[in-house]
Design a protein that fits this description.
- This protein is mainly β.
- The chain has a domain of 73 residues: SH3 type barrels (Roll), CATH 2.30.30.30.
- The chain has no helices and eleven strands.
- The strands form three sheets. The chain has a six-stranded antiparallel β-sheet, with no helix packed on it. Strands 9-10-11 form a three-stranded antiparallel β-sheet, with no helix packed on it.
- Strand 4 and strand 5 form a beta hairpin.
Length: 111
């Protein structure tokens, strides 16, 4: 299931406190079937002070189970299921079930 969603994809959150929000996937944890989405599922954590890093309460992103997100359709941005198709070149391509459009592979982030 996690191979359908990749880092850099635009997704829509289907369930949880951020239901309806959309964002870009920052990180995918394939072993745990979880994803991190920019600006979604923010939690507060108490951080102990370390040299060079002040302590206090920080806000950071927590992971969301992959079943609670869906890829955004390239045509209208609404959630869609994902299918696969083999291209003429023999390359496996992700396809949006709703519109039938190809879902482009996101560029790797250089950060």
């Amino acid at each position: 299931m996690a191979s359908r969603i990749r880092s850099g994809d635009n997704v829509v959150i289907l369930a949880g406190k951020d239901r309806g929000k959309s964002g870009r996937v920052r990180k995918v944890l394939r072993d745990d079937n979880r994803v991190f989405i920019e600006g979604a599922n923010l939690v507060k954590r108490h951080q102990k002070a370390r040299p060079g890093v002040p302590g206090g309460i920080i806000e950071k992103e927590a992971s969301i189970h992959v079943s609670n997100v869906a890829l955004a359709d390239p045509s209208d941005g609404k959630p869609t299921r994902v299918g696969f198709r083999i291209d003429a070149d023999g390359v496996k391509v992700r396809v949006a079930k709703k519109s039938g459009q190809d879902i482009p592979t996101p560029k790797p982030d250089k950060s």
